[in-house]
Amino acid sequence: MRPIEFYTTPEGEVTLRVIGEAERQLKETDYDFIQAILSAIREYYPQAYEALMEQYSKTLPNKSYRDYLAVRRFIKCNFGVYDNEIDVDGNGNFHFEFVSCPLRGECKYDKILCQPQFDSKLSERQLEIMRLCYDGVSDEQIAERLYISINTVANHRKASFRKLGVHSMAEFNRYAAVNNLFGNK
Fold first, then answer.
1. Phi-psi region of 165 (alpha: psi -120 to 50; beta: other; left: phi over 0)
2. 3-state DSSP call for residue 36?
3. In angstroms, what CA-CA distances link 182 with 36, 58, 98, 176, 185?
4. DSSP 3-state assignment of 181?
5. pLDDT the model gives residue 168
6. pLDDT band at residue 185, thresholds of 50, 70 and 90?
7. pTM of whole model > 0.90?
């Protein structure tokens, strides 16, 4: 996927600019693009995906329209500001923006659709160990703190890298920061 910047017009329409192409309005006929974004939402933001499917369930007989509305809503809630920050990078990672909304704090989907929780696919134990690694705790200290062997720490780290498609702590640290894996740190 090429880098993308989104913008919500004053009229409420969503425009997108794939880097290197002209800006254009998102349309229901952008089927492949919509499916790619929806797939990423389903995989990495499952609570947001479920909320979107619930919100637009009445349009289910027209699946392509439902998917269009769901992606459009997700974009409006998370990427509506036109700025110099790329919203979706070349690796498909989302870079959320704070989008002002008159219903912030009142909407039943607050913190579900806007600023959604990332699902890393890591087990609770893997997340616990990777959080400690991210915080700079040594393998020896992690093993002692969690009452496990140093080899177990290393095995959890390797499994986490494999699940996330990263190859080093530097890559993991970038991944964790971009995806807000451990909250605001």
1. left
2. helix
3. 25, 35, 18, 7, 7
4. coil
5. 93
6. very low
7. no
- What does the block give as tokens for 167? 């190859």
Contact (CB, 8 A) for 129 and 156: yes
CA distance 51 to 116: 11
Q: DSSP string of 59-119?
A: GTTSHHHHHHHHHHHHHHHHS---SSS-SB-TT--B-------TTTTTSTTBTTTBSPPP-
pLDDT in tens, 21-39: 999 999 999 999 999 999 9
Residue linked to tokens 């390797």: 158
Q: At what angle do helices 139-146 and 150-164 cross, to 10 degrees?
A: 110
Closest CA to 80 of 59, 104, 63, 64: 104
